């Protein structure tokens, strides 16, 4: 996303302290929206049991979400540069309100597909916009706070994705009507979020003559294509692992590991994202080369451990390996973004990162669809083993190629 034009006199009219409060409001709203996008993770098995649709249908429900994210990123992820951050965040929360209403009013398979697509559209609008808004709010409230904003936005993004399955599991385990109550609760949270975001200072002044609309421009630096595609493969692989744990992991726990506890399913998915956040925070000051060395140690161990845990039908081994893999995946995605950003000048950085995010979210969608299709003709264990081999190969090749640059 390109740097916005800011009107300093307008910004200074709002006390810097209020920008600091607005920073945390946006961080909480960002986390809430991302959490809602993964709340259904431990609930898919309940939908399957209630409606009798096959396990592979879950992949299409999840893919509808990923398609919504990608489409929204491409067509609307950048327009807050023109119309303002706050307005787009308000619209994205309103879209999430619509998604929650669809979940409540239309809980059958077609409704789930539509609701998840709408859910993804809201997330795609929010991700880049909230990240930019957090950075600008922090710079105004504390001139040396841009790095802090990067860490907070990363934790809000991945942390929210991790909280969702845990929240869904808690609702499913301890409260009645787990396919209804979570959506009602988040609907109420989103209404409160609209009020909160409306009070946050704007950091972009709308241009008197608005530029003609165009989709997000993407570009690949011609002179650094080999390194860019290594970063793209790393981002793709990272989101493929995240996609596995936010779509099919709970079904896999039931079918292969015979674990039917919804809270356990949510906790396993949560632990993967929590480890990704923790790895990024702990190594945020380390050089990219150091982060690559650490992830090259963690990810192979974690991915192989997932295969071993599945083959041995051992939940502890599977869960622990997910944590190790999650820490490595978090570092892999951070390294991919840093590598991609380093390949472009300031005038094209937004376009290069847009291309990288689109590749990443393709990784969220395509492998899960392929896994779902494979489940029709093969056992979950066989599918998981093939998935691990392919992802591990992509991780090793991409990480080693990025390491040569740093």
TrEMBL record:
Membrane topology reported for the UniProt record: Multi-pass membrane protein
Single GO molecular function: transmembrane transporter activity
Places the protein is found: Cell membrane
The entry's keywords: Cell membrane, Membrane, Transmembrane, Transmembrane helix, Transport
Transmembrane segments annotated in the record for this chain: 16-36, 56-76, 88-107, 113-134, 155-172, 184-205, 226-257, 263-283, 295-318, 324-345, 352-375, 381-400
Main location: membrane
Protein name, entry field: Putative MFS family arabinose efflux permease
Organism of provenance: Frondihabitans australicus
